[in-house]
Write a structure and sequence with these properties.
Structural class: alpha+beta
Helix content: 40-55%
Distance between the termini: 11 Å
Radius of gyration: 19 Å
Largest sheet: 5 strands, antiparallel
Number of strands: 9
Oligomer: single chain
Number of helices: 11
Low-confidence stretches: none
Amino acid sequence: MFTPFVTDEHPVALYAGVPLQYNNDGLAIDCALVLHVLHGSACILCNFDVIEERQDSVVLFNPGDTIKMKERSPDFEVEILAFTRFIQLAALNQLEGVSVDALKKNLILDTPETASAANGMVQVLKPAIDTCSARELYFISVMQLRAFYMLYQVMLRRNHLEVDTFRSRGDELFFRFRKLLAEHYLTSRSVAFYADKLCVTTRYLTDIVQQHYHRSPKEAIDIFTVMQIRLDLLQSDITVAELAFKYNFSSPSFFSDYFRRNAGCIPMEYRQQNKE
């Protein structure tokens, strides 16, 4: 069973099999993942972007990303390294000449070099997870992840993939919308708020999101938010009242109604049905 949750005491984890998110209605993650496809193929949505995974693909996921499966083959199997957000932040802060947005925009690569690097990182960290202290594992992981990110961007450039540019104004706005949503979903679920941040009209933002995601901005905001709430419900014992406050709802009852409308059940029912 795949669970992405890592802690300060266990800052790195290695998993193999089929991720829990790929058998779920959609779920956010609270850590950084490097996913290497060992067998089969899958099609997923990550932050509303379609990603086609196949054998030897390497996929990057970032803390706060939302993942929902569309389809996968029966033989689909992956190997995943999970890192705390603090390890990822430390690795990114030590990089020079690497665009963080480029890494977040180009989530998947199908090159022998990145597959080999991902496998090599597993071989280094697998014995370290079992033998090193949390402090030792932290420093080893930061060095490994930093080197992997550097190679990843080199491969992006070598394969003439877009690193710092967008194909169109619409692509750029959709990327910025998703980035803003990841930053502000706790405090705002208003389409007008995001349109104002992007300096566009709500109608123009609606057109852009419809073109890229085939849903309205409001639907995208609610789907993203509910996936984050599901994560909170599964990884903690936080109460409904605490969740309502965290997500800036006026009352616990309004929060529960919002979750029920978008998830089909009240928060405590979801926790009881899915946590184990």
